[in-house]
Amino acid sequence: MTIRDVQDQPQGRGQPQGRGQFQGWGQFQGRHRAYPPSTPPVRRGAPQAGRRPRAPSRLPGANRRPDPSRAAALAPRGPGPAVVTALATTAALALAGHVLPAGTWLPGVRRTLFPGLAGTGEPGHVALTFDDGPDPNSTPHFLDHLDRLSVRATFFVLGEAVVRHPALTRDIARRGHELAVHGWTHGRPWLPAPGRDLRDVGRAVAALAHLTGVAPRWYRPPYGILTGGRWLAARRCGLRPVLWTAWGRDWTETATAASVLATVRGQLRGGGTVLLHDSDRTAAPGCWRATLDMLPDLVTHCRAAGLTVGPLADHGIPGVAHPMPAGP
Fold this sequence. Notes:
alpha/beta
C-alpha cells in the first residue's frame, strides 16, 4: 500500500477520526523521528565524531605585533623633571637646615661669629659647667669638692638620668648649683628629626621644672652638635643654647689631672665657659676622677688671675624668658 492509497481510503462509519489512520505528513514525521537506541543524540555545538573542531574566531588585529611606541605611550609614567627637581631642592634645603647650624661646633667659628653661643660672658668671670650627670657614682664627689671650694657651677643633665635619680637631682639644686638641659638621652643627630628633638628637650625641661620648681634657662646639645632641629627645640622650650670656649678633653681613657688642667688653661680666658664632665656615662670608665682631682688647681688658677668662678647665671649672658611655668 502506498501513501496515496492510505490517503484515498474512505473512513469507516463509527471509526474515530485519525485513529489507526494517517493524518498527514506531520504524523509521518513524528512516527519516524525516534533515533536508534545505540545512537546518542547529537548536542548542538558539540563536535561530531570524525570532524575536526572548528577553530575559534580571532579578534581583529589579533595577529598584529605590538607597537612599541603605543606601549610606551600607555605605560605609567614616573614624576616629571620638574617634580624631581623640586623634591631634590626640598631635600637639599632640609639637609642644609640640619647640618649648617652644627658648624658652630668648630671653636673658631663659634668664638668669632657667635660669642654668645660660645658662652662668652663678663671678662672677669669664668663659667664652670659639667655635662652628662646626674650620676650617683661620681656626681656626689663633685658636689663635695665644690662645697669645699665655695664654688657654684652649672650642671647640664640628661632627662632620663634626672627621672632615674630624682633625689640626687634635687640635691644638686639644694646645694646652690644651677641645673640646665643636656637633652633626654646622649644621642647623635645623624638625620633630621625636629619632632624628636622637640619632644626630648621638652621632656627634660618638664622633668627639671617638676623636681626642682625652677624652669631651666640653658641648653647644651649632646656632643655640642647644635642642629637646626635642636636649635628650634631649644627656642620652643624657652632655652638659650650655650656651648663652651674651653674644655679639658677629660672623657678620654688617657686623661689625667695634669693633662686636663693643661688643656683647659691653654684655652681659657676671662669671660670663658669651661666644659667638664661629672660622669663617665658616655666616656671612658673612671675618667671623671682626673677631672675631680684637677678641680682645686683650676679654681686656684682662676682666682690667681683675678677671675671669679661660678655658674652661667652669674656669667652675664642674657637668658630667655620662659613661657613654661615652673612645676610644683
